[in-house]
Amino acid sequence: MTETRLIKDSTGFASLEPFWNRLVAESVASTCHSTFEWLFTWWKHFSADKRLLLIAAFEDGMLAGLAPLYADACADGFRDLHFIGQGLSDYADFITPRDRPDIAEALVSALLDLRSSWDGMDLEEIPAQSGNKALLNRVIDAGSVPAVWQTTVQCPYLPIETSWEAFYGTMGKGFRHEVRNKLNRWNNLDKDRRNGLELHYVDRREVDNMFVDEVVALSDKRRSTDGHRSPFLNHPDQEFLREVLPLMGRRNQLRVGELRSGDTLLAFMLAFHWEGTVYTWNTQYEPMFAAFSPGRIVLVRFAEQAFRDGCRELDFMRGEEPYKFQWTTLCRTNLALRTERTAQRPAGDTQTPPGRANVQVVQGERST
User: Fold this and answer.
1) CA-to-CA distance for 68 and 83, rounded, in angstroms?
2) What is the CATH number assigned to the segment(s) 2-154+333-367?
3) For the chain, where do the domains classified as CATH 3.40.630.30 start and end?
4) pTM
5) pLDDT per residue over 242-268, tens digit each?
């Protein structure tokens, strides 16, 4: 028999750690951004003025499912439901076993029993293929909450099915020539100056605050040059990242590729690792050397490392930047479930979580 419990504080949240990630690995939400490390640390840094509505399902005393939610008050006085981690997470969902829709049903029923604790929904970055989507429609119908499904963003991904040499050969002569040309130009620069400027690639599995300091400095240079935004330049985002990245590194959930010249960081690719998938999350390069394409070079080396490590997929996560489509034509779609009031807020509403992408209503996905 399935029993559900409402976890209302950080102590109860923390008590689930021994069982959380094992459940994630077997769930429909098996991504790096459903892990305990990511979500609990996020809650520690962003929980002010929020009410935890974490619903846990148990069977025979064992954790069997999770609805990682919270509610906060909007400027209009309404209380909206959000996923824990929303804004910085690229994927979110109920954490339920793949072959147990009854567990998801129990979580939905518990959420409806808490109807007096929330007024609307703003649930972002649910994969369109999630089996929980139909159940969330039940929340709309049974709870009499007019809501719409909206597309938030596409998430390109690359299955790793061949050797690196075989895959890289499909990238096209123009792409490969450009990489070789940039490397040759740099090598000539090094030769002319004779001052030890040779490039080297560093594969990291753990990071510390010194690395974050370098990332902040590089991100600040880029912002000063072309206005490029970075979570490393926002507070409290930066404080969250200073805590969560070393933690995930210690637990083998982090992958970082660095391109350096001597001790100087020229570019990096920061990624997460979970169950054989590498998730690229943040990248940056030294704008002074943009002509040498350090960002492209570091991504090539990073992808090669993922192939050689035996990973099964390279997930470029949310965002449709053109460089991602040089690598793949495959995309997944993320959705948001929002009450009509929330969906119609003006763009830039400061009461909504940060990191929201532009959205559009999905035709035929409206419930009332």
Assistant:
1) 6
2) 3.40.630.30
3) 2-154+333-367, 161-311
4) 0.91
5) 999 999 999 999 999 999 998 899 999
Give the whole-angstrom CA distance, residue 355 versus residue 353.
7
CATH T-level fold of 161-311: Aminopeptidase (3.40.630)
User: Pairing relation of β-strands 331-339 and 120-127?
Assistant: antiparallel
178: its two tokens: 């450009």
Q: Which residues lie below 8 Å from residue 366, measured CB to CB, with a gap of 6+? A: 148, 149
